[in-house]
């Protein structure tokens, strides 16, 4: 077995990408249908719980005629979710994205078929009964489950199964928010753990398919309309965006810690976890008495913030009541997403800044958008997704530059302060380490010729015409290709052959490969000055 000359190329992709792309388009269609179904189920549940009628018309729980009986509704919803998790599958607990990551990294991208049914149903009950969550997390998990189920019926590798799972997840997000590009970036920044054509192309096709079908089934974007903004390319807006981004980074860290503090509190309760969502429902119900608009998804609140006409009472209610309701109930382990609440809270922080600065409604809407994107970038650790997502849900292109500054500032603050994001912290608590940094394998940047040892292999003198062994690597191959071959075949040394002369030219050992790794360590840690400025007199001497 020898290294394939065709492997010396920029990208590792083969014809199987056509198969994955075709399957991904079908998954995108299915995921869009499930997204529509879940949104309809949430509307149906809301009508049943708060208005006692059969209807799929989108309504807010805040206008319910139940009065003080509204306190009981989230408790009933939490009890149903707890029962479904206890006797169905405990994987429906939580906000969906960590569960998708866990399936990818730890379970060979294999999802239990029950998840595809129970996750959207539990999310519809949880949100429809007043849970202050978004639908995007459950839809991402449900779309991913569909992609995994399809992949499990095909003869594919683990990597290809992961691609199809992520394709379903991206399609679900694209269908929910009309953000096909942001959904692709979310897949790259959070789920794929790679940037390769073999996975990016199928995921992009699934997301684009969902974005196209959404226009016919749910309407075209933008999801939130914004007023016309004044020119935002001035230094004042840039500095203000940076400062707001730093503030939102601190808020993001605080929200994550508060939510997991409530989760720790529930862990110490002397009752089975099946009852925790019902207890979390008590917090939702009590919060809903004081701030009814904190119940449910609350897209109408986000729309009001981005119109620039949010009242001071609404802003304070979101910052205090909504934040506590969301953190307490999500800490109880119920089913629901985090994106919509985080967008709302971040938008409220930005709107508050606009209020305090006595800004016009248009400028207040601008700061709400900056806060919304910064919150997403900081809390989830996905700055590029946050920038594109904020633009796609509003079509507000003039905000691009300050939005970029704010999202990067928020991302930097949370990267420095928080060892984990709000998504990966859950995996860490289960004993799994997850790095979010992408980089080219250092061995991919080192050529075998630079590491090989001059010691002959099995007696042939270098340069001598001999029959080649069954396994060898070309001298111009990458050290990574050699490492993979040695690992696959269980070899401690590998013969190196010159591609031009087809003669043995050396050997490569495991210790040689380690020298290739040392280069990357030195590159990261060795500090030196490569040149100094010289005065003309010093140069002449």
Which labels suit this protein?
mainly alpha, about 550 residues, CBS domain Like, Clc chloride channel, 3 domains, three-stranded mixed sheet, single chain
Shape: globular
Q: Termini, distance in Å?
A: 59 Å
How much is the average pLDDT?
A: 88
Oligomeric composition of the shown chains: single chain
Number of helices: 21
Q: What would CATH call the homologous superfamily of the largest domain?
A: Clc chloride channel
Give the structural class: mainly alpha
Rg value: 27 Å
Strand arrangement across the biggest beta sheet: 1-2-3
Number of domains: 3
How large a portion of the residues is in β-strands, by DSSP E? Answer: under 5%
Low-pLDDT sequence parts: none
| Percent of residues in helices | 55-70%
Q: Architecture of the largest domain, CATH level 2? A: Orthogonal Bundle
What's the level 1 CATH class of the largest domain? Mainly Alpha
- Main pleated sheet: 3 strands, mixed
* Total number of beta strands: 3
In N-to-C order, the SSE pattern is HHHHHHHHHHHHHHHHHHEHEEHH
